[in-house]
Amino acid sequence: MIFSTARVVRASATELVAEVPGWPGHRPGQFAMLTLDPGAPRHDPLLPRPMAVYRSEGERLEFRFKVVGRGTKLLAGLAQGAPLGVLGPLGNGFPEPQGRPVLVGGGTGIASLYELAAGCGSDVRVLLGGRTRDEILGLKDFQLLPVELSVTTEDGSLGERGRVTDLLQPSSGDEVFACGPTGMMKRAHELARAGSARCWVSLETHMACGFGVCLGCAVKTKSGFRYACSHGPVFAAEALEWDALP
Predict the structure, then answer these.
(1) One domain, residues 105 and 227
(2) Nearest alpha-carbon partner for 208 in 220, 200, 199, 217
(3) 158-177 core/surface letters (b: 16 or more CB in 10 A; e: else)
(4) What value does the mean pLDDT take over residues 55-74?
(5) Which of 63, 99, 100, 150 has its CA 20 to 30 A from that of 72?
(6) pTM (2 decimals)?
(7) Are 126 and 147 in contact (CB under 8 A)?
(8) Which domain CATH number covers 41?
(9) Across-strand partners of 46?
(10) Is the Cβ–Cβ distance between 184 and 164 less than 8 Å?
(11) 170-194: per-residue pLDDT in tens?
(12) What does DSSP say about strands 148-153 and 49-52: parallel, antiparallel, or unpaired?
C-alpha cells in the first residue's frame, strides 16, 4: 500500500485516468481511495472516494464511475495535470478462478470486473446489466475481449430487456464473480447455490478510511462482523448474512 500524489491524465463524467508514481500493482477487484487536492490544508469533500481500479498499465490507472454526488462531480471535472491523492492498492481482490468464470456486473459494479475478464482468456462468460444503456460502463472494452458477452437493460435500450441475473444459469462447473447492487448480488448467490456453483461477490459500500481503522464499513458475516475495506471488498457469497446487508 502506498500514498502517492498522482497527476490526472484525463477526466470525464464516466472515467478518470491518472499517472500514479510508485504504484506497486494490484489484483483485479482491489481499489484505491482518491483524494481531491491532497496538498490543500482542508479537504473538500472531507472524505476520499473509494474506486475500483478498472484498468491499469504500469503506473497509469483508469477508474470508471458514475457522477452521483459532489465528490464524483468534482472528480469528473478535474483538469489535465491536476493533483490527485491515491491510496492503494487496498482490500482483497478476486481469487484465481478454479472453475469456468461467469462474471456478473451491474451498474458501477462493472468497473470491478474488467481486469478479471481480461485475464481469464476465452473460456469466460460476462453478463453486464443496468437500468439504461448509459449504465453499461466500458462496453466497447468488453466487446474487444475474447469472451462470451451478454448485456441487459431494464428499459430495453441495449441488449435484452430485463435484469442481468435473468441470464444467469450457473452449473457445478462454473464459478460466479459478481459486483453491483446488493439485491443483484444476493440473487446471483441464490442462483449459484441452486446450481452448485461457487460464488464470490465484491461489496459496494460507503468507506471513510479504506484500511479498517474507522470501522465505518462493517458488514455482518456468519462468523461475525468484518470490514469491507480490509477483509473485503470481495467475500465468498455463502459467508455473508445477506438479510443484514444494506
Answers:
(1) yes
(2) 217
(3) bbeeebbbebbebeeebbbb
(4) 94
(5) 150
(6) 0.95
(7) yes
(8) 2.40.30.10
(9) none
(10) yes
(11) 999 999 999 999 999 999 999 999 9
(12) unpaired
